[in-house]
Each structure stands twice: as C-alpha cells, then as structure tokens.
Design brief:
By secondary structure, the protein is α/β, with parallel strands linked by helices. Helices cover 49% and strands 13% of the residues. The protein has 38 helices and 23 strands. The strands form four sheets. It has a seven-stranded parallel beta sheet with strand order 8-9-7-10-15-6-16, sandwiched between helices. It has a seven-stranded parallel beta sheet with strand order 19-20-18-21-22-17-23, with helices on both faces.
Length: 936
C-alpha cells in the first residue's frame, strides 16, 4: 500500500469575522494542494461577508473593509472551494475550526489532519504551538501571518516536518496513538492509521506493545539515571586550609580576584554580595536564624548557595532551599549550582562531593501505573486521547516525570488524573516510579531545592515529605505568609467534587471495574462485589444530589453579598451570616451530603481492599485511581465540616459563586499563620535563612517577623549596587483623574498610547484588575497597531511566561499584565524600556482574608492595607532594572502617590531615582528626551 507521502493533500486556512461558525462568516480562503514535497495547485480567495469587519479582525489580518466589499459573495465562490478540496484530506492548524466553518458554509471536508495536535504530541515539551511560533522555530517562510494562503503554506511545511518526527517513533508508540485516537475519532488517530497502513514492515511482538511503554525498560532507565552515591562528611587533615570556617572562605571566593571572578566570565565582586554571604555563613555555622533583604543585583542566590554548599560538603549535613516560583527553582538547579561547583573547584574545594537535587510535590510527577491504567481501560474523548498520547511520547524520553517538562496548556487540569498525587495508597514498590526516584535522589543529596508549596504541605502533614535537614533557606521569603495561607487552607469546588464522584459510576467507572477485577480473582465474589458496587453507585448519586442542594444554597447566600459582579459573587461567613434563616437550611443540606460522602468513601475503601487482595498487578492502576477519588472525597468532607457546622475561631471562611461552568466554592484559610510557622520552622535546632528583595517595611522587619512568627535571629538590609539615579526616571502625570473617576480609564488609554510611541521599545503595563486590563487592551490595540506597535495582553494572548517571551522579541511591543506579572517572570536576553503602573496595588478591602486580617488592627487601612500595597509596589518596580546596564522609565498613573498623605510611604520605599512630576501633555516629550539622551 502506498504511504502518506504519495497521498494528495490540501493544507487550508480560513480567515473569518469571528470564532463562531454559526454566526460568523468566512472572509478569506487560502489552500495549497500538494503531494509529498511537490506543490500541485493553490487557491486564494477573498469573500464578502456582507457585514462590517471589527477593528480587531482588521488589525489581526490586515484585510480591510474595502478589500472584502469588492470581493465576491460566498455563494459565488462556494463551488470553486468545494471542487478544490473534493475527495482530498484537509490539513489545518487547529483544523476543527476551519472544518466547522466549511460545514456551516455548506462544504463538507473529506478527512482531516491537524498540525496543532501533531505538534502537541511530537513536541511534548513545546513550549508553544501557534503556527507563527512553530514556523519561526523551524525556519519556515511565513511572511504574512493571519493571511489565509500564507498560513496554508506554512501549515503544509509544518505538516511535513512533524510527519517526519512522528514516523521515527517506535512502531508500538504509533500503534498506541492510533488506538487512542480512533477511540476518540480524532484526526491524530486517522493520521497514525494512515502511517501504519503505508508501512509494510511487520509489527514485531514486543512486551511494550500494549501501551507503547515497557515497564521493565522504563524501570531500568530510571534506576540507571538515579544512581547517586550518598554523601558523607569529608575528613580533613588539620593542616588543610579547607578546614577553616565557612565565613573565612567567603572573601577568597567572592572578593576581587577570587574564585568566582576566575571561574565565571563577567563576574564583578560586589560588597553587598560579600556581606550577605558572610552573614549567611555565620548564621549557618552558629545555628541561628537570619533575615536578609537583598536589593536587585546583589546576587543573593550565590550569596546563600555557596556558603550553604560549603557547609554541607564539610559537615556532611543537608541543606534545603525553598523558592516560591518554578523559574527560580530551575535557575538554581540549572545554572547556579553549576556556577557554585565551578567556583568551589577553582577555590580548591572538593566540589564533586556536592549533590544537588530538585524535589517537588506529588502532583508534579506522573504516575506510570495510573497512566497505564487509563490507556488500557478508558474510552477517551478527544482531549483525553491527546494528553494520554502526549504523555506516551514524553515517557520515552523523560528522566524525571516532572510535568514542568510538558507544555500542557489547556490540558493542565487533566494531568492530575495521572499524577502521583493520587498514588498515596500505592499497593507496591514494584515498577517504575518517578516520585520514588526523586525522593531517593533528594535523600542521597546534600542540597535539595524545593518550592514553598511542598514546604507548606510538609507543615500541613506534620512532616515526612522532606528529607531531614540542618539548614533551611527560604528565598522569595516575602511570599511565606501567603503560601502558608493558601496551602494551610482549602477550597471545595462544586463541579470538581461532582466530577470526582462521576469517575466512579457507569460501566467504565471505577466501581464497575473494581467489581470486575475482584470477580476475576475470587471464586463466587462476583455477586458480593457487584452488590457493593451497586450500593456505592447509589450512594454516589445521592451524594451528588445532596451536594448540589448544599452548593445551591451556598450560591444563594453568596448572591446576597454586596461584593460581586455578573461573573461571581462572594461573601465572608461572619456570625451575622451564620445567624440568617437560610444558614439552617445549609447546615441541614451539609448533614445530608456529609453522610452520603462518608458512605461513598467507605464503599471505595472496601472495594479497593478486595481488589488489592487479588494480587492482580493489572489492577494496581485502577486501585490508585479509586483511592485518589476517596482521598478527594475525604478531604472535602473534612473541609466542609470545618466551614459549615464547626468553624474554628482562628480561621476565615467564605463562599464564592461563579457563573458558567465554574460552580460554587466553599473556602477556608487560617487567619494568622504565625504560630504554625513558628512551631514548624523556627522552634527546632536547624538554621533558617530568609531572603528576598522586598521583605522589610520602612526599613524594619518587625511587621514581617510578626506575620511569620519569627522572634529570634539577626536581620540585614542590603541595597542594590545599581545606579538608579542615573538609570531610572520616575514620571508621575499629576493631572490624571483619580482612580475610580469616570475619566480614569480613557485617560489611562491615552497615556499608554503616548508611552508606547515615545519608548519605541518594550513597555510593560501592570494592572490590578482583569477588567481594567481588558478595557485598556480594547482601547489601544487598533491605534497602536496602525503605528506598528504590537499590543499583547495576559490572558488574551497567553500565560505570563508566554507574554514575557513575546515581549522579549524584537520590535516595539506593549504588554499588559495583572497579578502574576508583577514579579517572577523575567525577560530573557532583553530589557524593558518603560514600566507603567496603572494603580497603586492596594489589596481589595472586601476580600475575605483582607477584611478579616484588617480587623485585627486598630487602623486596618494604615496598618495592613498600606504596608501590603507598598510591598507589592516595590515588587512591581523591581521589574524595570534587572542589570547594571539597564535604563528605563517608571510611569505611575495613580496620582494618589502625590496627592495623598500615605503617598510618601510608597515614594520612600524605592531607591533614589530621577523623579519628574509632569502634566499628561508634557509626558510624551519628557519620555522622548529620556530616550534620545537630551533629558536634563
């Protein structure tokens, strides 16, 4: 049989007036017919939609109203399009979109292949799957993005490239992709089938043909890549210089002409870094606690890493480093550890005795048994088929099983079904296990890098998740209180709980599968297990029904709150709320739901025990999946009991009702985490180092110490070595309307347009709300687009990481971001020309946690909200200058910084910069003069 390279295929792209195939219209068709690498024909047509094009579509495609007004109607070109594609499979990037428009316009495609799905499988690590990004990555000609023929030509090139990658997969992998895809009737399944049909080589029987992965081979690969010898203290002779105190080694490593300067190109000794390294070394060796605020450019990572590694090497003790963000975790493991090793080698230290490992929480690691069970026993839909196939390809290459290696995007929520989070009750230690490998490596290492989430989970469980250690370093320590608040609290979502329960029922549900497994292993067990499964199914349906009543009542209570919008409403559960008549109804509904949920958990446990007793290894994944649901149900039971009938005095509870398919949440969080953190982190014998760039408030650590319960130890404030006075201009347009005034949004848009034009480079705008961001995006996109300035926005154009990658590209760009872009994701290989803060970042007063904590102070606004806002303000400012050579403008659009008495607290929180207060009219020439060097 001829292969797919001999098939005639069509790469097609449509430009449309919108995304709804039922109500929007095609405005351009581009298609290229080809066979193998040979182009056969092309089709390029503009279409009159008989409607006005939106400014967004005009800006996106470059197709103008006059272009389509002079084009033929769809009915006049429909037959030409239908004849061109007749009998030939269509290839598209997200082909479902194009196919839906063809069908709604009366043209039925014959077979579909999707290059986006191909890319998601063939390139599991991503990082991005847009046609433009992939064309750029592989060097395809794509000089006119979002024009149909240009997109179609790029899609053809991408298809052929990805096809070459997939064809090199092991035959068993392609077979499994075919099976999963055919179950879900996906284009990917059709492609895999066509590849196999055209392959005349026989499929040799192998042990891995069931899933595409051989468990024995995977286990062997994990064992061979995790053989790390445990570390022991190095035995020093008395005359060895290495036996000196760690603090005494710091000068020789960090000082001028020292080991770092010799081993690291471009390194410059900084007094602030030396001082921090000495303080860290002294605290570790004395077993004391230390807080260090280190300004941007100090180099705090190396300042704590090198002394702690020296201590670990010489003493044989273990150091744990916790960060808030994955980016910093990856930097420490992927870059800073290597720099440290080189510096210590140059210094004459035995750096080969340093063992560094990264450890994350269970939810970050794939569980092979759960994935295997899903592959073998489910009838997946198209999304499930895609993630199972993606993990399959990834499992052939990953050494860690860490989901951060995967570009999951919209597939992220599904990863939990296959993660080790649900493998707490794993029935055996046999078989491949990425979590076990990670823990073994951590136990064998003397430097372990974790994140705050795992640190808090360890605290919540009373220990046991982390290896024993003598030193704990907490970087990004200003997030410690918020991390504790989040991870020591809970949120029970209506639809998430229902979806967990739904996994149990039906012919393909966990209950029926458990009963079938038990009946295979035990004589006469079918009736008994089936009876238990039937009882459990009845309990599940009752639990769903009763929980629905409970959540509906919670939503009704939330809707009565003053704080809310059309999208969601939220109410804090105060004594006043709990004494309303409807609260009694909620408690009754909880009691009914609670009884049924406990019954469900008991039935699951009974069936899992019986299934495990059969010793059927094929049932292990099924048992893990069922136990995962049981754990979720039991966690919900505990949380709901605390939120509704048995609230704790030192916690805050609230309800959030959300529109659409997001459901209602019942939430709880500790009001004060200081006692818990003090007991868990600071009362033991270990030394704890806390560091970050924005910890102190008004040069004092008192507020921070109170928030985390730290009563002992020293503290240190180190400024930045950068010349902010020379490199940073702060501009405040004084005549801006006050935030909240009717004209503020329009004035913000006008100023952003001026800033983007004047900078002609990279601009980052920080907002405090999504609605304000969206309003600004709509107001400035078309205006700046005509000026050749790209506007990108968090959410509309992707994740924070993607926004920062796009901002780092060449060409003038203005990026709009909210909370997660105020810190954390840096530009790579580029710098900002301007940073804009739309409003001072005050916490929302009606937020349940903010409201409850504010009540603990006599002056909640002055003692809680202002310090919180100042800290956030400093974090936002820190985005601008990231190196000694950076030069930029910080524009503050919130005139409260100069009109309110508290504004001085924000002003004093920043390093000494050049400051100008100007009118909005004078802002443009001011920024231009700063850019072109004529500023005075």
């Amino acid at each position: 049989m001829s292969g797919i390279h001999e098939d005639t295929l069509i790469a097609l792209d449509l430009e449309t007036t919108g995304v709804n195939a039922k109500s929007d219209h095609i405005i351009e068709v581009g298609a290229v017919k080809f066979q193998g690498g040979e182009q056969v024909d092309t089709l390029s047509l503009l279409v009159n939609p008989q409607r006005k094009l939106s400014s967004f579509i005009v800006g996106l495609t470059g197709i103008t109203q006059s272009d389509v007004d002079s084009a033929p109607d769809w009915e006049d070109v429909k037959s030409e399009v239908a004849d061109f594609i007749a009998g030939v499979p269509i290839i598209g990037h997200n082909v479902g979109f194009d196919a839906s428009f063809l069908r709604s316009h009366g043209v039925k495609p014959d077979g579909l292949y999707d290059t986006m799905s191909m890319a998601e499988i063939a390139l599991p690590a991503g990082p991005e799957y847009s046609l433009g990004r992939l064309s750029q990555r592989f060097g395809f000609l794509h000089d006119n993005p979002h024009r149909a023929l240009s997109d179609a030509l790029a899609t053809r090139d991408l298809f052929l490239h990805l096809l070459g990658i997939i064809e090199k997969f092991d035959r068993s992998v392609i077979e499994q992709i075919k099976l999963l895809g055919e179950k879900a009737n996906t284009p990917l399944g059709a492609l895999a089938r066509r590849i196999i049909d055209g392959d005349d080589s026989p499929l040799l029987p192998t042990s891995d043909s069931l899933t595409g992965i051989d468990p024995k081979e995977l286990s062997q690969r994990l064992r061979s890549s995790s053989k790390i010898p445990s570390v022991e203290p190095h035995k020093y002779d008395q005359d060895e210089k290495d036996s000196q105190k760690v603090e005494d080694s710091v000068d020789e490593i960090f000082g001028e002409g020292g080991s770092l300067e010799k081993s690291l190109d471009g390194f410059e000794s900084r007094p602030e870094q030396v001082e921090m390294a000495k303080a860290v070394a002294n605290a570790i060796e004395e077993g004391e606690h230390l807080i260090v605020e280190a300004g941007t450019g100090v180099g705090k990572s190396l300042a704590y890493l090198i002394p702690s590694v020296l201590f670990a090497i010489r003493s044989g003790k273990k150091v744990v480093i916790s960060t808030n963000t994955i980016n910093l975790q990856e930097q420490l493991i992927g870059k800073d550890v290597e720099i440290t090793s080189g510096a210590l080698e140059e210094y004459g230290e035995k750096s080969d005795r340093m063992r560094a490992a990264q450890l994350k929480g269970r939810a970050n690691y794939v569980c092979f048994k759960r994935w295997q069970n899903a592959v073998l026993s489910t009838d997946p839909n198209d999304i499930e088929s895609k993630i199972l196939s993606k993990i399959l390809v990834w499992l052939r290459e990953t050494e860690t099983g860490d989901r951060s290696e995967l570009a999951l995007g919209r597939l992220t929520p599904l990863f939990g079904r296959f993660s080790a989070q649900g493998a707490i009750m794993c029935p055996s230690n046999e078989g491949p296990c990425f979590l076990r490998k990670a823990r073994n490596q951590a136990n064998a290492s003397n430097v372990v890098v974790i994140n705050h989430a795992l640190l808090m989970s360890d605290i919540a469980m009373g220990g046991g998740l982390l290896p024993d250690h003598d030193v704990l370093i907490v970087d990004e320590a200003h997030h410690l209180e918020s991390a504790a608040t989040t991870h020591l609290g809970f949120s029970v979502n209506q639809f998430q709980l229902e979806n967990e329960l739904r996994q149990l029922t039906g012919n393909r549900g966990h209950l029926a599968k458990l009963a079938a497994t038990i009946s295979k292993g035990v004589v006469n067990a079918l009736d008994a297990s089936t009876n238990i499964a039937a009882q459990a199914t009845e309990a599940v349906e009752a639990a769903i029904q009763n929980a629905s009543v409970m959540f509906d009542l919670a939503a009704e209570i939330a809707a009565s709150a003053a704080r809310g919008s059309q999208q969601q409403s939220e109410i804090r559960l105060t004594n006043g709320v709990r004494t309303q008549p409807i609260w009694s109804d909620l408690e009754i509904a909880w009691e009914n739901a609670n009884a049924r949920l406990l019954e469900v958990a008991a039935h699951i446990g009974e069936l899992c025990e019986q299934a495990s007793a059969t010793k059927d290894s094929s049932a292990e994944g099924l048992v893990l999946d069922a136990y995962a649901v049981k754990d979720s149900v039991e966690a919900a039971v505990t949380s709901l009991r605390q939120a509704i009938p048995e609230p704790e005095d030192d916690s805050v509870y609230w309800l959030r009702a959300q529109s659409g398919n997001r459901g209602t949440n019942i939430n709880g969080a500790p009001l004060d985490v200081s006692k818990k953190l003090n007991q868990a982190l600071f009362e033991g014998d270990r030394s704890v180092i806390l560091t970050g760039a924005t910890i102190a408030y008004e040069k004092s650590f008192e507020r921070y110490r109170n928030s985390i319960g730290l009563e002992t130890g020293n503290d240190l404030v180190l400024g930045s070595p950068y010349d902010y006075k020379k490199n940073t201009l702060i501009a405040v347009p004084e005549d801006m309307p006050a935030p909240g005034d009717p004209g503020f949004a329009n004035a913000t848009a006008d100023v952003l347009i001026d800033i983007a034009k004047s900078s002609a480079g990279r601009v980052l705008v920080l907002f405090t709300s999504i609605s304000a961001l969206d309003n600004a995006r709509k107001a400035i996109s078309s205006v700046l687009g005509r000026e050749g300035i790209r506007v990108i926005a968090q959410g509309a154009d992707g994740s924070p990481a993607r926004i920062m990658r796009m901002l780092a590209e060449d060409g003038p760009t203005i990026a709009l971001g909210t909370s997660s872009l105020w810190e954390g994701v840096d530009l790579q290989g580029a710098s900002l020309d301007a940073l804009v803060m739309a409003r001072l970042p005050f916490p929302v007063p009606s937020d349940p946690i903010v409201a409850a904590r504010s009540e603990q102070f006599e002056d909640g606004f002055g003692e809680y909200s202002i310090p919180e806002a100042v800290q956030r303000f400093r974090q936002g400012f820190g985005r601008l200058i990231r190196s000694r050579t950076d030069r930029g403008v910080f524009v503050i659009l919130d005139n409260r910084i100069v009109t309110k008495s508290y504004g001085v607290k924000f002003q004093r929180s920043l390093p000494r910069c050049t400051v100008r207060r100007v009118s909005t009219e004078r802002l443009f020439p001011l920024l231009e003069s700063w850019r072109d060097g004529t500023f005075e």
